[in-house]
Hints:
This protein is an alpha+beta fold. It has 2 domains: 31-138, Immunoglobulin-like (Sandwich), CATH 2.60.40; 147-398, Metallo-dependent phosphatases (Purple Acid Phosphatase, chain A, domain 2), CATH 3.60.21. The strands form 5 sheets. Strands 1, 4, 5, 7, 8, 9 and 10 form a 7-stranded mixed β-sheet that branches. Strands 13-12-11-22-23-24 form a 6-stranded mixed β-sheet, covered by helices on one side. A 6-stranded mixed β-sheet has the order 14-15-16-19-21-20. Helices cover 17% and strands 32% of the residues. It contains 8 helices and 24 strands. Residues 155, 157, 183, 218, 340, 342 line the site of one fe (ii) ion (FE2). One fe (ii) ion binds next to loops.
Amino acid sequence: MNRREFLGKTALATLFAGTSPVLLGAQPEAPKSASFKVRFTTAPSLQCPTADGVTVAIGVDGPSTAWVEYGETEALGQTAWGSRDGLKPFANHAHHIPLAPLPPGRRIFYRVRACPIDFRGPYDIRRGEEISTDVFSFQTFDPQAAQARFVVWNDTHENAATLQALMRRTRTLPSDFLVWNGDVTDVNQEERIPIQYFSPAGQPFTRDMPLIFVRGNHDTRGAAARALHRFVHLPGNRFYYSFRHGPVAGIVLDTGEDKLDTHPVYAGLGDFDRYRQEQSRWLEAELKRPEISQAPFRVVFCHIPCARREGVPAFASTDPRSGWHQVFVQGKVAAVVSGHTHRHACLPPDENRPYAQLIGGGPGDDNATLIRGEVTRERLKLSIQDLHGEELAAWTAET
Ligand SMILES: [Fe+2]
Ligand SMILES: [Fe+2]
């Protein structure tokens, strides 16, 4: 008998010797402690922002539990345990702790705590040394806010230098949220997803403001792509959703792969046309919801552009995405913000397309961009900037 088996059997023998089930329930054994450790592998990432909540995600390097202490002052004072169905979190690579309800438009201070867990058996669960992040803060969404400011990253493809430069630029632009407009990476290994999606290249890009995640075609690729939604939490647990912050209503669409489902490289595993039709039905209804339809400006975020050149439709008439154009027109969409082409572009509205199409650049230091959005009730400004902050193109709309 090895040591672990011996300890397990001894513990069970002690529990059951001369006791009744009533006594077992009345005298629970205190959790055993041990000196094993866990480390955070990422910065916290604020996911799934809604009008009354956000989910704090963080990567860890081993079996552990985690919780979040938070409040409206640095004294914190409240605890979110992340329990589900009566069980607190227990995971190997990442934790997700929802904070809700939160008041709209308020600064929330928080820190994440974690504790390694040696889960030897139902009655032999050992806690290790607790760890904690520093205290950080963010502002919650507020549908009534007078203005909204955001930044858009896209097509970073794990280029560390570009990610670092984007982070430096983003720090100079106070923002309410960050849109990551797709093509983070091919998703080959599930255990690497937290490092790739929570703090890419070690950058705490959504530690201090919530993430609006938009899936790109590369994010659908790789053997672990089906696990992505378990790590990047989104409203309704879908890659298409909407949000409202102040004068802007955001619509996130998932354009899927960039080749036909029948293309041989997908070996018959792609089913994006059906998925796009599902989104078409949702989009039509979503744009009619008062929270969206009554916003001063509606902006669509989708990875593959819906228009690439003046007067040229981006999709074949047989592609369900070609039908989105008419829904955008009827729903009075002001602008579509995309990436994918690795070449920035700013297409103002024209006689056939009453909304603007902006496209961010690529992953290299010679073509990477950041798109800045500034919205008031009277004015929407979208500008494309290079990594030094120089404005490459801009478009403004007024109500
Ligand atoms: Fe890309
Ligand atoms: Fe792409």
